[in-house]
């Protein structure tokens, strides 16, 4: 059974990071995240306006799979994350 999680990712890259290294890191991050989006496990990603942050929805088999996906992010060492497990709301008309 799959589980849903909302994950807020705040990114803080070193201000003095080499531009070539930064470009390479961001390219790897994009490719990695899009791989998981295509698989269906990373259901959506939303930019937090005015911040270097995103809010993403994951559908995974549980904590261990989510942990593995997040730890695999190339930007992981530069992120702070807030993870919220989600459950169906009884007032959601789409659930009926």
From TrEMBL:
Its EC number is 5.3.3.4. It catalyses: (S)-muconolactone = (4,5-dihydro-5-oxofuran-2-yl)-acetate. Pathway: Aromatic compound metabolism; beta-ketoadipate pathway; 5-oxo-4,5-dihydro-2-furylacetate from catechol: step 3/3. InterPro entries: Dimeric_a/b-barrel, MLI_dom, Muconolactone_d_Isoase. The keyword Cytoplasm does not apply. It comes from the Bacteria. The keyword Isomerase applies. Residues 4-92 form the Muconolactone isomerase domain. One of its GO terms (biological process) is beta-ketoadipate pathway. Gene3D superfamilies: Dimeric alpha+beta barrel. GO terms for molecular function: muconolactone delta-isomerase activity. Keywords: Aromatic hydrocarbons catabolism, Isomerase. Belongs to the muconolactone Delta-isomerase family. Homodecamer. This is Muconolactone Delta-isomerase. The lineage of its organism: Bacteria, Bacillati, Actinomycetota, Actinomycetes, Pseudonocardiales.
């Amino acid at each position: 059974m799959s589980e849903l999680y909302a994950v807020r990712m705040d990114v803080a890259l070193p201000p003095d990071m080499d531009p070539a290294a930064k470009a390479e890191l961001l390219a790897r991050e994009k490719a990695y995240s899009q791989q998981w989006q295509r698989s269906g496990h990373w259901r959506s990603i939303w930019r937090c306006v005015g911040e270097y942050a995103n809010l993403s929805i994951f559908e995974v088999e549980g904590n261990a799979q989510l942990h593995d996906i997040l730890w695999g992010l190339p930007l992981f060492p530069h992120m702070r994350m807030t993870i919220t497990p989600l459950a169906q709301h009884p007032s959601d008309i789409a659930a009926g």
